Amino acid sequence: MENVTFVTSDKKELYMKKWTGQFIPNAIILIAHGMAEHIDRYDDFANYLLSKGFYVYGYDQRGHGKTAKTVDKLGYFAKINGWNRVAEDYNEMYNFVKEKHPDKKIICLGHSMGSFVIRTFMFKYPDKANYIILSGTANGENFKILASKLLAKFIKKTKGEWYRSKLLRKLTFTDFNKDIENSTTEFDWLSKDKKNVRKYIEDPYCGSTFTASFFYDLFKGIEHLSMEMNINKINKESKILILSGSNDPVGEMGDGVQKVYESYKNSKVKNINIKLFEGMRHEILNEVGKTEVYEFIVGWINKNI
Known about the structure:
GO terms for molecular function: hydrolase activity. By secondary structure, the protein is α/β, with parallel strands linked by helices. It has a single domain (2-141, 227-304), classed as Alpha/Beta hydrolase fold, catalytic domain (Rossmann fold). It has 11 helices and 8 strands. The protein has helices at 43-51, 65-68, 82-100, 113-124, 143-159, 166-172, 194-202, 212-225, 228-231, 255-266, 290-304; strands spanning 2-7, 13-19, 28-32, 55-59, 106-111, 131-135, 239-245, 271-277. An 8-stranded mixed beta sheet has the order 1-2-4-3-5-6-7-8, with helices on both faces. Helix 4 links the parallel strand 5 and strand 6 (131-135). It is globular and about 50 Å long.
């Protein structure tokens, strides 16, 4: 494992990690992490993939982890076009990895917010998005997304782009717990693994209240990637795997994830599969029984590359 600084086309320094070895890899996995977390939390998963013959690259997205550098800078993408900038970061990272490994296939894996980044990448760069794994994604075609975007826009305009709204936090974090029985923390919806939840809570780079600017960019991005005209732009030859826990409130306990699957299926994507892991919550890569998820992912990759 090695830490590297990656400089984007707009001169932003991104904290990047790569898990590589002294062997020729079967393929490369490029990870986009979720909201209010960071790439260091994927170390177990990345090392598992490495042990199975894959190289792994990942990075802290703008406003996250070591890319943000300090906790007061968490939760902010960019002054303008924040969501497009984040999607472009992934594209530039993809280009970097492809330059390093020109003869290797790249699997694009995104969790939660990272899945939205990948889904944007899919319609912006369909010729590159050939192997896709979406974890903990959500349906963007609902009233809550539209209402949240309008609320974030209003708060951003009236309170300022760096304002951190408790109401917006409630919509994205606190409300997810309402479907979790006997919850004892604000983040029980993440997983049944109490140690994982405790580590998340104690991590200063996780679970922060993000800015109004971030939420506006996020909800606008989700709305955009969910539009039929953009879904129809994706590569119909792409191989797509959608994964979620059956008890993940972000994916509406499977219902929202199923709608995402159907939207791609209806756009004539030929090779798309969905898997709900029974009883698991949002972070299936950090959940009780996560080895089952790891094995399923490796099996799918080996079958499809």
